[in-house]
Amino acid sequence: MRDIQMVDLKAQYEKLGGEIDAAIKSVLNSMAFIRGPEVKLFEEELQKYLGVNHVISCANGTDALQIAMMALRLSPGDEVITTNFTFIATVEVVALLGLKLVLADPDPHTYNISVEAIKKAITPRTKAIVPVHLFGQCADMGSIMKLAQENGIYVIEDAAQATGTDYFFPDGTQKKAGTIGNIGTTSFFPSKNLGCYGDGGALFTNDETVAKKLRSIANHGMKEKYHYNDIGINSRLDTVQAAILRVKLRYLDQFNTTRRTIADFYDKSFAGCSSIILPERSDYSSQIFHQYTIRVKNGQRDNLKKFLGSVNIPSMIYYPEPLHMQEAYRFLGYGKDDFPVTSLLCSEVLSLPMHPDMEQEQLDYITLNLLEFFEKH
Fold first, then answer.
1. For residue range 206-262, what is the model confidence (pLDDT) as tens digits?
2. How far apart are CA 307 and CA 289, in angstroms?
3. Strands 183-187 and 154-158, how do they pair?
4. 164 burial level (CB within 10 Å; 0-12, 13-18, 19+)
């Protein structure tokens, strides 16, 4: 049996290596490493895939969030609501721009930001909501957009873990994650379901005026060469990464379908285990399972993780500590018990290996060992 990895990029490369090598070689032959033709082609292809009017590539997902907030002219003191259960990038750009970070608890079943928690957090100073489509499933965007429109608030989607996920509206229409709010953002970090071989990111919008502002800010605020209309930053997706992403984009739906098949196997295997809570799939969103994340009951999470490691099964805790208890964010003034759902999830969640190149032998081994642990405990 092949060694089990949380994300097996080598196995993926073994399948796509010929196409990826050719794509990289074409860039090397052109020597157009910055803003080469592959960048524009990738933006156009991703735009078509997502069904959005504009895709603006940038250097990484963190930059994408910062560029979005700069483009919407959020000012120091403006309040931005986001989830307390997310990767640090979602909140650090809020702090760096001098905005006021307002945290909200997630829903304990979907792990995404709670609409009720958002409602309680809105004040006259609230200018933006940043829902994070965590682990591959959309937040309740219909309800969030309704709240935002009623209160004149921008919505910036953090879709870094959900490229290709569909949101289903009550009227039967659907849109891809990241294309519903005012601006969507994503990351192409190598472990993402659409990942490159370094850093990369992008922004999405249907508003042409906003798109021009995003593109300007990402390129030093430049309107035309050496003429600057905006204060900007230097944030570019390099041509090699764009070429790699063009190859992988062609396989994205196939990858996501395979992830769902693996999740179905996990669900079926663990259905009778009362010691864990399986990830819930909402009615309003597809689920691509960027992570397959269970909740382990009765304080056994850390013991299970240790046991899995002893039999060479990797696992990860996303995320081990609430953001409001991180040293860097103590200045927010929240108390230890202010976010009970976040604290509960941080003590129970465990992500199992999930990638589209998993073999049945690996899945059998993982599920057998996990169930064996609970039979003994």
1. 999 999 999 999 999 998 888 999 999 999 999 999 999 999 999 999 999 999 999
2. 24
3. parallel
4. buried
Residue written as tokens 């990797």?
314
List 156's β-bridge partners, or say none: 183
SS3 state at 323? helix
CB atoms within 10 A of CB 108: 17
C-alpha 293/C-alpha 318 separation (Å) is: 8
Domains of the chain: 9-104+113-249 (3.40.640.10), 252-376 (3.90.1150.10)
Whether the model pTM is above 0.90: yes
Token couple for 186 = 């994503």
At 124-177, the pLDDT tens digits run: 999 999 999 999 999 999 999 999 999 999 999 999 999 999 999 999 999 999
Contacts 24+ apart (CB under 8 A), 100-106: 100/125, 101/329, 101/332, 102/126, 103/323, 103/324, 103/332, 103/334, 103/339, 105/339, 105/340, 105/341, 105/342, 106/134, 106/341, 106/342, 106/345
Q: For the chain, what's the residue count?
A: 377
